Amino acid sequence: MQVLVTGGTGYLGQAVSEALIRRRHTVTVVARHCPPTDSRVQCRAIDMRTASFTELFRGTDVIVHLVGIIQEHPAAGITFQVMHEQVTQHVVDAALSAGVPRLVHMSALGTREGAISQYHQTKWNAEQYVRKAPLAWTILRPSLLFGGGSPFFATLAAQARLPLVPVPGSGQTLFQPIARADVAEVIVQMVEKDVAVHETWEMGGPDRYTMDALYRHVAHVNGRKNPPLVHIPLPLLMLMAEVGQRIPKFPVSTDQLRMLNEANITQDERWRQLVPVAQTLGNDL
């Protein structure tokens, strides 16, 4: 099949593209920057905020739309509204114009109407646009991804090396990490099979962890047992983040803090129909 992957050079996109190639699909990757030439894929370097996609999409059987950001950079024109809502609208409109029959759209666990974070609010608006489109869409909402160098777990690892490990809030917020490889496999099977059309699937791994437990696990993987955790009150962190947002490369935003103190778990196990044996959180972070 002819499969086009937006955001195909990103953390999840690389795994999805590799999985599609292994199954002998023809893969076109669309990203802002293309890596060194890989003869197995065609990569198109495009600014998805402004590009016209219709001609590029012609002849495509399935679009896997993975574009998303976790932190805004307004000075560069990179905001949740632009990258989640506007880009998704461009992709959906172009898919309809080009006659693409199938779209697998990546959202995030916690996305819902009235969400407390801008991240989830814009993800919700993007989902709503997808749902109104007259094509065979599927929406996926995974929890935290791990495996193969997860950016989230890399951040935790860096913090877990500090003499005192700062934990936002109580440390008791629950998360349900899921393997990047399992999400990629679900996407590939959705490309290949007529499943989950006009459905929204949430995806969480087999185990749940508190934030404290995640810090301890990451520290243990990196050879440190029982690191001292220091819980920083959320109001203080929010104040620091408000000030820090004016500083380039400040490590956390107020929006991220809101999400880190909201449970990120699900009872939805429909994806296990496609991947019965789910990977558990181990040493491959």
From TrEMBL:
User: What is the name listed in the Swiss-Prot or TrEMBL entry for this protein?
Assistant: NAD(P)-binding domain-containing protein
**SUPFAM superfamilies given for it?**
NAD(P)-binding Rossmann-fold domains
Origin: domain of life: Bacteria
Organism listed in the record: Sulfobacillus thermotolerans
Q: Which residues cross the membrane?
A: none
Which stretches make up the NAD(P)-binding domain?
A: 7-193
Q: Which InterPro entries match?
A: ComplexI_NDUFA9_subunit (IPR051207), NAD(P)-bd_dom (IPR016040), NAD(P)-bd_dom_sf (IPR036291)
In terms of CDD domains, this protein maps to: NDUFA9_like_SDR_a (cd05271)
